[in-house]
């Protein structure tokens, strides 16, 4: 039977057997628990029956828990539900209990450089008027945009050269360049502020997380991020802490002496620095084998370990004589044999008598049979 | 002191084979006593095994030389035979050249042997073959390389080189400090 929306179904109707069961606690106990169906919670604020608890704590707890769960389930089934392709779906009501904050408060937003400066100087934000007086048109024209006022250098037909300036400079190009520089600088400063974590945060009131970023802004941000990670510093850091070797001056604390009390820097200098670099290069789990190297970083010195053959024991001597003889046979091989001739100087039949007379049927070294 | 690597062995044998040819086998596998080649500080020594085992008792810095010095590896890892090995070369030489008494001194000073100083030579010496030089009284004087094959030498001018000098017994006096 397909139920219409907002049909109320009682748990008693769904599973009457559960209600007729042996748990008498369900029937008699008055149901005055506080329910928060949004959180699927039931709060039992009755005082604990100490006698009952101590007689059988597990049973007592179990009974009270099941009573609470039963109450939740009853109420869930009393809620209006809708049919969906997965079955009856119920929308839980709003929460009645207020839960404390799960996550910490967002950090207070840091002031940008300008904001800090303005605060110190007492500069307040003044809203610019939309219109400006246009001298030529003798009208109030918009500051920017459609039919804007033509007050600047870019709209002037003739620009006078001031006494201290270069007459060969194009003032319009100059103005344009200056403006681009100002805009770029501003974007850089914005990016810098952002990089330093100052200014608007995503959680601050009034910010829109999905704000669209213009091309210039993007370039400025890219420039700010491209500048760092900071370029690798070559050479030795000057502020390497020196391991101080405090030598007590023989004449007491007041006496001056060449060695006494002077710090002997052990870890400075090119030699020590390169040594430290060597150590650092292999201070990883794979001994620095797979580490990406900076440009100009010296290659790790690989010590070639030469296999030391035992010199004088009988086994090695026998092997040695074998080796010598094989080399000898190579050196003294007859002229028509060896690499490049196709013939081997080694008599295979002598080495492998059971395969004597073997010739390949096909492939390299095959003996071509006459048909 | 260590045995030669395969590469080193090959170089030494090839050099020696130029002078002694197939007799090299008699050097490597001696019937009377087993001899071996040992490498020490760029020099190769030919020493009996018994001697070699005794020499293992000495430290590297104390051991100067063992047995007979065959020759030396240069910095570019080429092998040169030294005059100290002349006895063995003379014993097993495949190509021999005898020099006249008046030219002996010239050769012993490090000069090449010219046609007028040549006494006799074995037949069928190929060009640039390794050659052992003897005096007319069959005393080995040194070794060298045949500048020309035997049949060409017959028609040479008296001043032309027949044997190019490589080592002579005069070196014992001349370059005493270089030899070990």
Can you tell me about this structure?
Chain A: One of its GO terms (biological process) is ribosome biogenesis. Chain A: Residues 358-371 have a biased composition (Basic residues). Chain A: It is found in: Nucleus. Chain A: This is Ribosome biogenesis regulatory protein. The complex is a heterodimer of chains A (371) and B (180). By secondary structure, chain A is mainly alpha-helical. Chain A has helices at 11-14, 16-19, 24-28, 50-55, 57-78, 113-121, 171-195, 215-227, 270-281, 314-331, 348-351; strands spanning 34-36, 41-43, 81-84, 87-90, 131-134, 139-142. In chain A, strands 1-2 form a two-stranded antiparallel ribbon. A two-stranded antiparallel ribbon of chain A has the order 3-4. Residues 1-5 and 246-261 of chain A have low confidence and may be disordered. Chain B has two domains: 1-86, Nuclear Transport Factor 2, Chain: A (Roll), CATH 3.10.450.220; 94-173, Archaeosine Trna-guanine Transglycosylase, Chain: A, domain 4. Chain B has helices at 6-20, 24-28, 49-55, 86-92, 101-108, 150-154, 171-174; strands at residues 2-3, 35-40, 43-48, 68-73, 79-81, 96-99, 113-114, 118-121, 130-135, 140-146, 161-168. In chain B, the strands form two sheets. A six-stranded mixed beta sheet of chain B has the order 7-11-10-9-6-8. Chain B has a five-stranded antiparallel beta sheet with strand order 1-2-3-4-5. Chain B is elongated, with a radius of gyration of 17 Å. The mean pLDDT of chain B is 92. The A-B interface holds A 308-309, 311-312, 316-317, 320-321, 323-325, 327-328, 330-332 and B 1-3, 6, 9-10, 13-14, 17, 21-22, 24-25, 28-29, 34, 36-37, 49, 52-53, 56.
């Amino acid at each position: 039977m397909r139920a219409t929306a907002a049909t109320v179904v009682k748990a008693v109707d769904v599973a009457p057997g559960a209600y007729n069961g042996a748990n008498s606690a369900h029937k008699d106990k008055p149901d005055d628990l506080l329910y928060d169906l949004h959180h699927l919670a039931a709060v039992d604020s009755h005082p604990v029956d100490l006698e009952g608890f101590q007689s059988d704590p597990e049973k007592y707890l179990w009974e009270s828990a099941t009573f609470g769960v039963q109450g939740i389930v009853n109420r869930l089934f009393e809620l209006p539900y809708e049919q969906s392709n997965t079955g009856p779906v119920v929308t839980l009501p709003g929460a009645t209990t207020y839960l404390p904050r799960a996550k910490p408060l967002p950090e207070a937003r840091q002031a940008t450089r300008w904001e800090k400066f303005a605060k110190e100087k007492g500069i307040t934000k003044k809203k610019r008027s939309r219109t400006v007086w246009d001298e030529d048109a003798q009208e109030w024209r918009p500051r920017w945009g459609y039919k804007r006022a033509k007050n600047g250098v870019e709209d002037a037909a003739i620009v006078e050269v001031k006494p201290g300036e270069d007459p060969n400079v194009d003032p319009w190009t100059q103005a344009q360049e200056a403006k681009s520089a100002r805009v770029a600088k501003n974007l850089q400063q914005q990016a810098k502020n952002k990089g330093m974590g100052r200014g608007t945060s995503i959680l601050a009131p009034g910010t829109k997380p999905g704000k669209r970023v213009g091309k210039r802004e993007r370039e400025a941000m890219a420039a700010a991020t491209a500048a760092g990670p900071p370029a690798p510093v070559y050479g030795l850091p000057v502020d390497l802490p020196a391991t101080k070797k405090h030598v007590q001056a023989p004449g007491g604390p007041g006496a001056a002496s060449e060695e006494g009390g002077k710090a002997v820097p052990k870890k400075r200098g090119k030699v020590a620095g390169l040594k430290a670099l060597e150590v650092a290069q292999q201070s990883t789990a794979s001994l620095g084998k797979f580490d990406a190297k900076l440009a100009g970083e010296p290659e790790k010195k690989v010590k070639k370990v030469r296999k030391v053959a035992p010199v004088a024991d009988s086994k090695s001597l026998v092997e040695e004589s074998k080796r010598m003889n094989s080399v000898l046979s190579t050196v003294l091989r007859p002229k028509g044999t060896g690499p490049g001739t196709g013939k081997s100087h080694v008599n295979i039949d002598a080495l492998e008598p059971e395969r004597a007379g073997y010739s390949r049927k096909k492939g390299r070294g095959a003996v071509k049979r006459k048909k | 002191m260590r045995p030669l690597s395969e590469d080193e062995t090959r170089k030494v044998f090839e050099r020696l084979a130029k002078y002694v040819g197939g007799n090299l086998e008699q050097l490597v596998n001696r019937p009377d006593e087993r001899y071996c080649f040992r490498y020490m500080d760029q020099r190769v020594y030919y020493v009996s095994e018994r001697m070699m085992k005794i020499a293992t008792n000495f430290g590297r810095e104390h051991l100067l030389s063992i047995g007979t010095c065959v020759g030396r590896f240069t910095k570019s890892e080429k092998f040169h035979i030294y005059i100290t090995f002349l006895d063995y070369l003379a014993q097993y030489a495949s190509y021999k050249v005898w020099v006249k008494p008046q030219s002996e001194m010239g050769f012993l000073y490090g000069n090449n042997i010219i046609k007028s100083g040549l006494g006799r030579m074995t037949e069928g010496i190929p060009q640039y073959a390794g050659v052992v030089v003897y005096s007319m009284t069959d005393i080995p004087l040194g070794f060298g390389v045949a500048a020309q094959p035997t049949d060409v030498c017959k028609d040479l001018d008296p001043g032309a080189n027949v044997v190019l000098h490589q080592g002579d017994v005069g070196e014992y006096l001349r370059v005493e400090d270089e030899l070990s």
